[in-house]
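Q: Predict the assembly, please.
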Amino acid sequence: MNNILKKFIPQILAILFVILIFGFLTMNAQTNMDNRGIDFGFGFLSQESSFDVQFSLIEYSGSDSYARAFLVGLLNTLLVSFISIIICTILGVIIGVARLSSNYLIKNAAAWYVEFFRNIPLLLQIFFWYYAALRALPLPEKANAWFGVTYMTVKGYYIPAMVWENLNVFLYCGLAAIIAIIVLKNYANNLRDTQGKQIPVFIYSIGLLIVLPLLSFLFGGVSLGFELPELKKLSKISYIYEGGISLPPELIALVLALSLYTSTFVAECVRAGIEGVSKGQKEAAASVGLTPNQVLKLVIMPQALRIIIPPTTNQYLNLTKNSSLAAAIAYPDLVLVFAGTALMQTGKAIEIVSITMLTYLTISLTIAAVMNWYNKKIEIKEK
Amino acid sequence: MFKIIKQLTSLVAMFAVLFAFSTETMAAKKSKTLENTKKRGFVRCGVSQGLPGFSNADESGNWTGIDVDVCRAVAAATLGDATKVKFTPLSAKERFTALTSGEIDILSRNTTWTLSRDADIGLTFVGVNFYDGQGFMVRKGSGIASTSEFKNGTSVCTNLGTTTELNMRDFFDSRGISYEPVVFEKADEVVAAYDAGRCDTYTTDKSGLAAQRTKLSAPNDHVVLPETISKEPLGPVVRQGDSVWEDIVRWSLNTMIEAEEYGVNSSNADMMKTSNNPAIKRLVGAEGELGAAFGLDNDWNLRIIKQVGNYGESYKRNIADTGILPDRGPNELWTKGGILYVPPAR
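A: Predicted assembly structure:
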């Protein structure tokens, strides 16, 4: 009896304590807000926002609701995080492998890159790219064309927009190619397991991915045109490009800073992963007659990934949360649009800050869940 | 078991303390803010992060400006010394939270008086110390002479969390012009972005444009367009719920304006004690018991005039002599064709 009591009472007390704290905080906030005549409620979300946003992935204007403004900010946060995660992963893998190169120059260049970018505070890097690097770009009318059709200017990067006809047919073909690849892969695995025959699945897959969508151009009535950005005069001395897609400099600076900074951490994870696989594994694999490519693909990488994935997940989460520094350079992310302008216009500090916190929590937990699923998948399966 | 009881009692004690704290802040018949200010020995004042003429700090950290003078007037009235003010620079985004959370007691930061701010978020505006309106600044070379010449695709730099963002949308929307708002948190960042050519125009209150123009690399290459697209009455703000403190701040500002109206200034205030005009005698504390209404002594208004000066002196020192807006425009007394008009101090 006494033992059970000793075991449970502290836990029950701890839970009660947490509930009391939350209860007290809520009550305290309630009384203080009542005293100061501040209402609490989420009704404002359906009210007209009456402010505009620089850059949005969905249709949005000032006559839309605060809820839609929230969505605009959220999508912008997801956009910048998504692009940066992809770039930082590619860069990170390249740099991480380069650090293990036997070439003196490559090895040291990679080491310098890592030490340089990870040891400067991220906010400073964002400021550098935005205020120093991008500000040095030419005005629209003085910009030279890159690749003939794109223009890098102080007002943003202007690229041609794709104008599709029958885009859905094209997408269906792409989908069909992916399904075909999965079927092929299963068939190849089956063949290998039962008859010991190998098919070059990778080359076939690439072929499928290219050929099927191409066929849609020939037979499906799909066509792709380009809308080019054209210089337009706003006043005697100011110009802008019209048509095409404009990537605001704020987005570019943020993606550059986030992906260069985070790629150094990913590179270290990759290096740790590869170094974590003992040399004996490689030698043993070579001695049974596997080619160097097979050694990497079948022996080293599966083991290295297990070491790489968990810390890399942390870096993805950091990157997503760091993207909130966007507010410093006017990129309209969740913090700037919702926890900034919307908060100021409504004065609903507690509501908006809690929504924003919950949103970041949800994004982070989703990324963690996906990465954990992937980690489970590549784990050692004990038979 | 004994240990658990001990933990429990300390827990209860802790909560007792916390709750006691929260109930204490509820009672506010007398001015809690005034009491705390006297105990602390300085007035806590929220100002801008640097807007010449309104609130700006020099290299040695001395704050000047007409917004700063409102806080100094309150310090002179309540503590007897206009220098006893602690200034907290705030971004537009932080300002209201700083006030409602009790970090500061007066927000004097070129803040526009609007219905929703006054009624909705626990703030009270006590008056207007500058009548302003929103305008646009463009490069002289652009040849733009009026806001009607803006074209689709114009990029506009401005500040986050201000009425400017809303007015700008009303303005461009009603004219059917598509524009690109580039919104920064700090005024200095807006200036830097506009200066670098990121934006075609910079919009904020006209006084702000005039002040920020001085920070550009070539101020003379820029011009403020004549149109005013909004009403922006700027004034000091206090927390809701302490009406005595609200009155002290309101009448400190009113005293400065009324002093100008009656020709009382920092150099002649003492002599005015023997004036024949009872209104002037009330203004310098030589007649009546006006201070008692706030729990202050009778020299509160004399100290404001002597230490800070009247509104005209403050305007001249901070805005006219610094070349920001030499012409007082609507911020002239009602007796001289402006709209500055305050209720009588009696």
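Residues 32-131+233-335 of chain B form a domain with the D-Maltodextrin-Binding Protein; domain 2 fold (CATH 3.40.190.10). Chain B has two domains: 32-131+233-335, 134-230.
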